[in-house]
Every structure is written in structure tokens, then in C-alpha cells.
């Protein structure tokens, strides 16, 4: 007779006396609670009360994915399913290399210098596992703060030492590479156009960082997931400067409106790509074959991206004009889909209080502190809602003190 199952304890129930505590990876335990819970709770309350909200909080735009990409996915569903490979299909690597050539003027060898990833988040998280070990003398990983949190998490889970470098307004939120300690650092992460500030880097800036990394034998990883969303001059890729001990992480999520497909590419130094090729089968992150077909269609076409650039450009201009009118300070940018706004004096630099006040008007923004140290005193506006919703949100925002 099967043994009756015990009823699991209700969530939050303290362990029974004498029960052994569950040992967790301390890195997991250190990942404090989600900092925006208070805002989330208030937002739920408002929505349950029937209040219309405008979500400028998360970076997941609503514009539809191009029809040809959707069709490629559907047509790609095979009759017989087989395991995909880590290297992915040659067509996908070829289509990506074609885009790199058109967009950045960089000729990549699709056999040796390119690997697909299941979204750039997992690739960013996993990459340090291939290059860091506790036996290494240098295990430091430098990245900017405020920033995307995955550089830190990937570092810590791989046994590396997290070395956040504070990004400052006077440096236009570019990582000051002279603050990186070459004696302890093994990897430097860059991210341009930048989340959360929208800051962009010049070719000369990238050259400076690349020269520093070359001189000190530091691996240079560049997260370029917003690189194709711009209204002014096209932002450069690190691969235009160098591919020596360098990797670029490129994603279709924002470029092609494919956040739910999970598709990205890692490209650069063939020695590093080969190391990732050895690591990744153990993790099991080979991209589904039909997603690869959709991705092949996406990298092969620039028309849909031009349309997305135009849409985000219109929203960006709408908000910039409003901020200028209202006397709100923001970091001027013409790339990514973020605007980084200084909290007005009336809120004494308290980004959480300002976000809460905006929420009372139904406007959801992300308080800067949720992106790490250095983010306090700012809020991030993600240009996610449609143009009409942006206009309505601005009407509500207009009445608040600047
Ligand atoms: C800076 C940055 N890098 C990487 C990602 C991950 O993108 P994905 O995993 O969808 O390719 C994001 C997502 O928001 C991001 O903001």
C-alpha cells in the first residue's frame, strides 16, 4: 500500500522543533528581498480599486513582434523533435554574422566566433563559470552600479569577487575604468546603451577601456542588448574596437520585441567562444530549434527594427519635451528605451517616495535604488506603454511638483 503523504506545512510556518535547517547556498541567502514590494503592494491595491495604471516600471515593451518572425517560429516547429546543439544552426550563426557586418562593419567567423544563447540574461549569468575558479589569484569582476543585477549574481555564484564601481553623473554614467583594480580583477563588464540610465559610450571611450583590459590581461565583456535601439548616431559595439579576450552579448529581446522567445548571441574572441562552447552543454541552455528559426529571420531583417526605433524615438521625444517643460532633470540620451530622471527637490532625493507619489497618479516607475548603490535619487522611466498611454500618463504627471 502506498504510504499516505504528509500535508506540507503552510508557507511561513517555523520549522518543527528539532528539524534540521535547510542549508542554502549563502549567495542565494544574501540575495535580499525584492526591494519594490511596498510599491507592488500599493499598485495591486490601486488596480483592485479600478484605478488605471501606466506601467513604465519593467523593460518589457508591448509592441507586437514582427509577423515574419512569428511565422518563422511556427513554421519551425518540427514533426520530430530532436535535441538542439549548443552551437546552434549554421543559418542562425550566419544571419547574426550578417547583421554584425551590416550594423557594425565587423566580419565574424560564424563557425568559431559566435554562439547562440537562450536570452542574454542566462549567458551573462553563466559566462563567469567558464573563466573563474577559486584557485585563481584574480577573481574580481568589475561592473557599474547602478546597473543590471545579473553581472553581480553571475559573479558570486561562480565564486568570483564582486567589485561594483559607482557610476556618476559627472562621468555621464560611464564606468571609470581607472577605478578598476588590475591586481584583483579578471573580468570587466560594460553595458551600453545602459540600463537603467540610457547612457551611451563613444568609440573612443570603448578604446580606452579595451586598452586598459589588454594591458592588464583582463577579460572584457560587453552587454549590448540595447545597441540597436537609437534615434541619433548608431552606438558602437566593442567588437568594432577589439575581439581580443573580448565578448559581446547581443539580444533579440529589445531589438526585435522578442523578450518571450529567449534568444541572444555571444560573439568575439574564438578562444573565449570555444571555452563557452565547452561549458554550455553541461548547463543545458541550447536554444530550441524553432526559436533559432525565428531568430534567423529576426537577425536577417532590419526593417522591423527601424520601425521600433521610430516608435521608441517618438515616445522618448514626448517625454523629453514634457521633462523640459516641467523643469525635471534627466540624462539626455537618444538610445535604449529608458530615461533616467532626477528626483525633484520637493521629494528631497527620495526616489522611493517619488515613485510612490507617481503611483498614486497611476504612473509606475522604478526607483533608482532598485538598480543598486548610486541609483538613489533617480527614477527610471521605461518607455513601454503605447504613445497614447504615454500622453495620458504625462497629463497626470504634469500636476506634480518638480
Ligand atoms: C542590461 C541588460 N542586459 C541583459 C538583459 C537581458 O535580456 P534578455 O535575457 O532578454 O536577452 C536585460 C533585460 O532587461 C538588460 O536590461
UniProtKB/TrEMBL annotation:
Spans annotated as Disordered: 1-22
Aminotransferase class I/classII large domain location: 54-396
Keyword Transferase: yes
Gene Ontology terms, MF aspect: pyridoxal phosphate binding; succinyldiaminopimelate transaminase activity
Co-factor requirement: pyridoxal 5'-phosphate
Keywords: Aminotransferase, Transferase
Low complexity bias locations: 8-21
Annotated EC: 2.6.1.17
Coiled coil (UniProt feature): none
Domain of life: Bacteria
EC primary class: transferase
Keyword Nucleotide-binding appears in the UniProt entry: no
UniProt xrefs under PANTHER family: AMINO ACID AMINOTRANSFERASE, L-GLUTAMINE--4-(METHYLSULFANYL)-2-OXOBUTANOATE AMINOTRANSFERASE
UniProt-recorded name of the protein: N-succinyl-L,L-diaminopimelate aminotransferase, type 2
Organism per entry: uncultured Rubrobacteraceae bacterium
Amino acid at each position: 500500500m502506498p504510504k499516505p503523504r504528509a500535508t506540507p506545512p503552510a508557507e511561513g510556518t517555523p520549522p518543527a522543533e528539532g528539524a534540521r535547517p535547510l542549508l542554502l547556498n549563502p549567495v542565494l541567502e544574501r540575495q535580499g528581498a525584492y526591494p519594490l514590494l511596498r510599491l507592488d503592494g500599493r499598485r495591486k491595491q490601486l488596480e483592485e480599486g479600478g484605478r488605471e495604471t501606466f506601467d513604465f516600471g519593467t523593460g518589457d515593451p508591448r509592441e507586437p513582434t514582427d509577423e515574419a518572425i512569428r511565422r518563422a517560429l511556427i513554421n519551425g516547429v518540427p514533426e520530430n523533435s530532436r535535441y538542439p546543439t549548443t552551437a546552434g544552426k549554421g543559418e542562425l550563426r550566419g544571419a547574426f554574422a550578417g547583421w554584425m557586418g551590416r550594423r557594425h562593419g565587423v566580419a565574424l567567423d560564424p563557425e568559431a566566433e559566435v554562439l547562440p544563447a537562450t536570452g542574454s540574461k542566462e549567458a551573462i549569468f553563466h559566462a563567469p563559470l567558464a573563466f573563474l575558479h577559486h584557485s585563481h589569484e584574480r577573481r574580481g569582476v568589475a561592473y557599474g552600479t547602478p546597473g543590471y543585477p545579473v553581472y553581480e549574481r553571475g559573479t558570486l555564484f561562480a565564486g568570483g569577487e564582486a567589485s561594483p564601481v559607482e557610476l556618476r553623473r559627472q562621468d555621464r554614467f560611464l564606468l571609470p575604468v581607472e577605478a578598476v583594480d588590475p591586481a584583483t580583477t579578471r573580468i570587466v563588464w560594460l553595458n551600453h546603451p545602459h540600463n537603467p540610465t540610457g547612457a551611451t559610450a563613444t568609440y573612443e571611450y570603448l578604446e580606452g577601456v579595451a586598452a586598459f583590459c589588454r594591458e592588464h590581461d583582463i577579460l572584457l565583456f560587453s552587454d549590448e542588448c540595447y545597441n540597436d535601439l537609437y534615434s541619433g548616431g548608431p552606438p558602437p559595439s566593442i567588437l568594432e574596437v577589439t575581439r581580443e579576450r573580448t565578448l559581446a552579448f547581443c539580444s533579440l529581446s529589445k531589438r526585435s520585441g522578442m523578450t518571450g522567445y529567449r534568444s541572444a548571441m555571444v560573439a568575439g574572441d574564438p578562444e573565449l567562444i570555444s571555452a563557452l562552447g565547452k561549458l554550455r552543454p553541461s548547463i543545458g541552455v541550447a536554444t530550441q530549434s524553432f526559436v533559432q528559426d525565428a531568430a534567423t529571420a529576426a537577425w536577417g531583417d532590419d526593417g522591423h527594427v527601424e520601425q521600433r526605433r521610430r516608435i521608441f524615438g517618438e515616445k522618448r521625444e514626448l517625454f523629453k519635451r514634457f521633462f523640459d517643460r516641467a523643469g525635471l532633470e534627466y540624462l539626455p540620451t537618444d538610445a535604449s528605451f529608458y530615461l533616467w530622471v532626477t528626483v525633484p527637490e520637493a521629494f528631497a532625493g527620495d526616489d522611493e517616495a517619488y515613485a510612490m507619489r507617481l503611483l498614486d497618479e497611476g504612473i509606475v516607475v522604478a526607483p533608482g535604488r532598485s538598480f543598486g548603490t548610486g541609483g538613489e535619487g533617480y527614477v527610471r522611466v521605461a518607455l513601454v506603454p503605447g504613445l497614447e498611454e504615454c500622453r495620458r500618463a504625462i497629463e497626470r504627471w504634469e500636476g506634480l511638483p518638480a
